[in-house]
Amino acid sequence: MQPAFCCAYLKKDEWVQKMKTIISHVPAKTTTSYQCAKCKTKYRSKARALQCELLITEEKAFKVGDRVRWCEELHCSAVNKNYWMDGKVQKILGPALPDFEYNAKWLGGKLFDKHIFMYEVSWKCPHCKLSCSGRYYSLELGKIKSGSRK
Ligand SMILES: [Zn+2]
Ligand SMILES: [Zn+2]
């Protein structure tokens, strides 16, 4: 055996043994998390969970079955035309915290410091008749009055 190799090997072995001893003396870590009662988000800090619980919950703007439209025109790629959504609220999700980036980028931060609801909307494309669905925040949707043809 090469003496150099033997020496290195022994050293490594000693080191491993030491590491083992140290590891066995580390007490088992218990992590505690605190859950916001409103949105069920888990926090490592109790203060942050409490802070979340203090945030208001927005009023539900729509109910299941409501006719709604998105604030912008939608695009049908099949015929390359835009159209206005004529959708129906299928489901209401939440309360939850709004997506941080989406809120900051597209909604001007209007949803910060709020528990919000999301509305699952389904509609049919008037051009290609394809069934579509998506999730939207209340401030992106508008109610379509019944009887309105648009
Ligand atoms: Zn919360
Ligand atoms: Zn279409």
Gross geometry: elongated
Largest sheet: 6 strands, mixed
The proportion of residues in beta strands is 25-35%
Number of strands: 10
* Structure annotation, total helices: 3
Bound molecules: zinc ion
Question: Helical amount among residues, as a percent range?
Answer: 25-40%
Query: What is Rg?
Result: 28 Å
Low-confidence stretches: 1-10
Our measurement of the CA-to-CA distance between the termini, rounded to an integer number of angstroms, reads: 88 Å
Give the overall average pLDDT: 86
Order of helices and strands: HEEHEEEEEHEEE
What is the SS-derived class?
alpha+beta
Keywords:
31% strand; binds zinc ion; elongated; alpha+beta; six-stranded mixed β-sheet; two-stranded antiparallel ribbon; 150 residues
Element layout with pairings:
Layout (H helix, E strand, L loop, with lengths): L2 H23 L8 E2 L6 E2 L2 H9 L1 E2 L9 E4 L3 E3 L4 E3 L3 E10 L3 H7 L7 E11 L6 E7 L3 E3 L7
Parallel strand pairs: 3-8
Antiparallel strand pairs: 1-2, 4-7, 4-10, 5-6, 7-8, 8-9
The structure holds zinc ion (ZN) (2 copies).
